[in-house]
Here is the input.
Amino acid sequence: MANPKYLWWNGKVMPWEDATIHVTDMGWSTVGAIFEGIRAYWNPDDEEAYVFRLPEHMRRFEQSMKLVRLEQEYSTDSLIDTILELIRANEHREDIYIRPLAYRAGGGGGGFSGFGSEAGILINTSSRPTHLKTGKTQHACVSSWTRISDNVMPPRVKNISNYRNGQLATMEANINGYDVPLLLNDQRKIAEGPGACVVMVRDGKLVTPGVTDSILESITRDAIIQMARDDLGLVVEERAIDRTEMYIADEAFMCGTAAEITPILSVDRYQLGNGEIGPVTSQLEDLFLGVLRGTDSRHSDWRTPVGLRQLAKA
Ligand code: PMP
Here is the structure.
């Protein structure tokens, strides 16, 4: 797929090809880096794209920077404007993924001694069509790897280094013939997947691990909890989950910006329900897609219009 025309780097929208760094900056450069993953959805009737929960994502970006001791030179509000400007510059009339990344500027060659707090910031966008309602499903396993815990590397923020944990678990799962691993936390309870939270349905209730169970503080998980309660009238429990509860769940799904809602059909080859996408998951997928695209008017405060409609008129 072709790259978009522009990205934003350290204060400027610039041509994609011009944003390069020297090869000696490889290695340590991204150990302390943090990032965000955000999506925007195209609504053809409105001729507009809507970014999903942009202020919440950029608030977490700010918190991630704080936790890894990077100084924020740009205000969160100005980064929000920057993201909208970049999407307009690239004229993305499609579903996209937006990735802001903050790293320790000045080269990574210093290793442990590279403690400068000055941050370089990059924001890039790419085309990423939704897979909601496309029938995408996953078979999961419980990983032999343990999820990082808060006194090791804080799971609640998006530090690049955290993802080595999920990458090892994913490689193991894939080699063993599964699509996605579920990692247990150091209490031996279900935490989450490598890049998404997990929700199970038992007796009509939604159950998901709490924010102190070694999970990322997921914005999608929060949205799903609110939609399930307010729009579908479901009971939602945030609590520790035993691994064998996953085996006897009626339904389960992964949720996150990239994962959106991805139904899980089995865990460690224990089939969930009748082995197909369950009714609660399916209902949530319908609702979520409408809310994301803005074809469902509910939760309008979660959608930031990009301004592409106005641009087309100008
Ligand atoms: N857990 C991890 C480890 C993740 O990387 C992600 C994706 N950001 C999530 C959960 C889901 O978080 P969100 O809904 O905010 O994208």
Observations:
- DSSP finds seven helices and 17 strands in the chain.
- Helices lie at 54-67, 76-90, 163-175, 219-230, 243-247, 279-293, 308-313.
- Residues 138-276 form a domain with the D-amino Acid Aminotransferase; Chain A, domain 2 fold (CATH 3.20.10.10).
